Structure formats: C-alpha cells, structure tokens
Amino acid sequence: MCRSGCRRPAGAGAGVALFLMAAAVLIGAPACAGPVAMPDAEQAVPRIEGRILAQGKGMPNGRSGRVGAPFTLLEGVSTDATYGYTQANAIKVGNGSTRSGPANQQAYLNALLAADGRVIEYERVGSCCYFESADGGTGGLLDVYSVALPDRGTPVLLYLNMYEAGVQLAPVGFTARRQAD
Fold it and tell me: How many CA atoms, within 13 angstroms, populate the side-chain half-sphere of residue 174?
C-alpha cells in the first residue's frame, strides 16, 4: 500500500500494478501518490537471442562506482515506472555509432547507484526483442542486463537500446553518480 491508501491486489505482480496504474491514468482516476516502486521479483526474462559468457558470467559485467571507470552523467531519475524495466521503454544509450554502443551501455550502468547511494552490480543476460527504429532507420535488438542491488534478493532486469539516442535517466529505484564521485 502506498501513502494515499491505494492497494495492489493480493498476489498481483509488477505487470498487474503497471496495468492498473496505466488504466487509472487513461480513465482520469487519481494515481497512487507516493514513491513509485520498482518491479517485484516476478519480472519475466524474455527469450534471449544471444549471450556471451566468460568465466561463468554474462559479458560485459561490472560494478558501478569503480574509480577511473567511464560513466555517463545522467539527467536525473525517471518518475516513469516502466522506464528501463520494459521492452517498450528501453533506456536509449546510442549516439549514432553502433561501434560505441556496448561502451555506452557500460558507461550508463557505471553511472547507476542504488537509491541509497550504494554501488550496484550488473551482468549482461543477452540480446532480445527486435524493434524497428522510430525514425525509419534500421532496427536492432535490445540488450538485457541483470542488475543486483544491495538488500534486494532478486536482481532486476533493465532493457538498454544501444542504437537510438535519448535522454538518459536513472530508473525508479536507482540514483546516479555525480561529477565529483
């Protein structure tokens, strides 16, 4: 239950919660006030098209907060509960060059911190979910990353689009490194 008294039905997963929130917006009902929650542990893994493993871990992988590691300065924290957590609202980290796409993904993930400022760990699960570019260009596959947060038993999945550029924000439940970090 959130501060305004809205309840998610018992046993309902994150998908149901997002559906109910969207339905409330469409019919003009007041949305649940208070902080937007991260997806529950029930987040489904999509069909993975390709995966690269090294020493039993998906590549690339790493930890945010590493000294000297390149990171992106993010523009804030999203208030959209679907940002990064769904295929339809993947985080766009592209800059026009597919050769820099994986480096952009790592720089983005290196910028993420848990909401309390602690470092996160990430690992590429693989590619999935073919999409067509909104601007009429060629499409591509999204990359799925498993992100482990301190004090959360089950990692969350984040969808990254390395082909298209967009405003880069931290998803709900995260914060971002600052220039001085």
Answer: 34
- In terms of DSSP bridges, do strands 156-161 and 91-92 run parallel, antiparallel, or are they unpaired? parallel
Question: Residue 168 CB: number of other CB atoms within 10 A?
Answer: 20
Q: Is 31 exposed, middle or buried (0-12, 13-18, 19+ CB in 10 A)?
A: middle
Tokens in use for 129?
A: 């979910």
Judge whether 175 and 113 are in contact, CB under 8 Å.
Answer: yes
Would you give the DSSP letter of residue 157? E
- Cβ neighbours for 13, distance < 8 A, ≥ 6 positions apart: 40, 42
Which residues, other chains included, contact 168 with Cβ-Cβ below 8 Å and sequence gap of 6+?
72, 74, 75, 91, 92, 93, 108
pLDDT tens digit sequence for 35-87: 455 665 457 777 777 777 777 777 677 778 777 778 888 999 999 999 999 99
- Is 23 strand, coil or helix? helix
Cis peptide leading into 60, omega within 30 of 0? yes
Q: Is 26 helix (H, G, I), strand (E, B) or coil?
A: helix
Q: pLDDT of 76-108, one tens digit each?
A: 999 999 999 999 999 999 876 556 888 899 999
Q: Are strands 121-131 and 57-58 parallel, antiparallel or unpaired?
A: unpaired
The pTM of this model reads 0.72
Q: 80 is written with which tokens?
A: 């959209």
